[in-house]
């Protein structure tokens, strides 16, 4: 998959727990876990907006693209 989710990195940088973020954003911890592990198939802009507001970051701080060659060789 070419889209990599670096939500764990931002949570660590902001010293915020997943539980706190889930409560602030209004999603379940299970859905946040799916997002963190890269198993999510989509994310609503409203959810991304809420995450970025809470973590004071840009969408590019959470999401990045890598070609399949890079992800397969890791």
Automatic annotation (TrEMBL):
Gene3D superfamilies in alphabetical order: lambda repressor-like DNA-binding domains
InterPro entries: Cro/C1-type_HTH, Lambda_DNA-bd_dom_sf
Tree of life domain: Bacteria
PROSITE patterns linked to this entry: HTH_CROC1
Residue ranges crossing the lipid bilayer per the database entry: none
Domain HTH cro/C1-type positions: 19-62
Name of the molecule in the record: Transcriptional regulator
Species of origin: Pseudodesulfovibrio nedwellii
Organism placement in taxonomy: Bacteria, Pseudomonadati, Thermodesulfobacteriota, Desulfovibrionia, Desulfovibrionales
């Amino acid at each position: 998959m070419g889209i990599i989710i670096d939500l764990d990195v931002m949570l660590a940088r902001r010293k915020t727990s997943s539980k706190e973020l889930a409560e602030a954003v209004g999603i379940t911890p299970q859905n946040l876990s799916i997002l963190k592990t890269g198993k999510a198939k989509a994310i609503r802009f409203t959810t991304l907006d809420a995450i970025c507001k809470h973590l004071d970051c840009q969408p590019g701080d959470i999401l990045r693209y890598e070609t399949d060659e890079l992800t397969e060789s890791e």
